[in-house]
Design a protein that fits this description.
Length: about 250
């Protein structure tokens, strides 16, 4: 389980386990992590965790929030990230070693990541180069990171597992620009994160009501059909064109 270590002037103050979906940080006693300092706003920041991924958001605080020395509004947290709020630091630990970087990744591999949650009836494949195992059927690429923090649960009976989405068609995205134009990725997972960490990241969630895209990280927001999104989740429709981290891709139902 991921955790945060609160420190001041290099001295550890307290450790906090990230054991729930939403953790608030601020000066008020009602916060999950209270930092009683005048430089900290009453409701300064919030950490939202979806499955094994955590996202930090500054709540329009007076003095702002830094991650690794850079001011952020929204940020996808990675192991050893240091959050600075006033004079205090919160260090984020996942308990997992970072994966070794690959040599000279292609353009699509540099700009796309996958952070997906499994559907109960469909265990995720073993981590390996996708191109080698699916080249004849699904022309998709390897990505910069593919990480599953926990083993997949045993498959449930098919009828029970797919009931919430049994009437929902499976969607996919097709890359329209860049060196990997024409490649496809099926959105069979409950959560798929796309983008380039540190630049721009968005999340596509699969719900019984449909597919939704939400901005997670980056100063600029993704665009859908030429319109810039806001901070709210946006429903995706068939043949919508998404612009994210310098790449255009088309969302469509199969």
């Amino acid at each position: 389980m991921a955790k945060l270590i609160l420190s001041l002037d290099g001295q550890t103050v307290r450790e906090y386990l990230i054991d729930k979906e939403r953790i608030t940080i601020g000066r008020r006693p009602s916060n999950d992590i209270q930092i009683d300092n005048l430089a900290v706003s009453g409701e300064h920041a919030v950490i939202t965790t979806i499955l094994n991924d955590s996202f930090l958001e500054d709540m329009d605080s007076t003095n702002g929030t830094l991650v690794n020395g850079e001011p952020v509004k929204k940020h996808y947290l990675q192991n050893d990230d240091v959050i600075e709020i006033g004079k205090y630091r919160l260090t984020y630990f996942t308990g997992q070693a970072a994966a070794a970087p690959e040599a000279e990744p292609q353009d699509f591999e540099r700009t796309m990541i996958i952070r997906s949650s499994p559907l109960a009836a469909k265990p995720a494949p073993v981590e390996e180069p996708v191109a080698a195992s699916h080249a004849s059927t699904q022309p998709v690429s390897r990505y910069e990171e593919v990480r599953t923090d926990e083993e997949e649960p045993a498959p449930a009976p098919a009828a029970a597992a797919v009931k919430p989405e049994e009437n929902q068609p499976v969607a996919a995205i097709q890359i329209l620009t860049g060196a990997n134009a024409g490649k496809e990725l099926e959105l069979t997972k409950t959560l798929t994160s796309l983008g380039k960490p540190g630049v721009q990241v968005a999340v596509i969630t699969r719900r019984p009501q449909g597919y939704f895209i939400t901005h997670v990280q980056g100063e600029s927001f993704p665009m859908v059909n030429g319109q810039t999104l806001d901070a709210q989740a946006h429903v995706l429709n068939d043949h919508d064109v998404i612009e994210l981290a310098g790449i255009k891709m088309e969302f469509f139902f199969k």
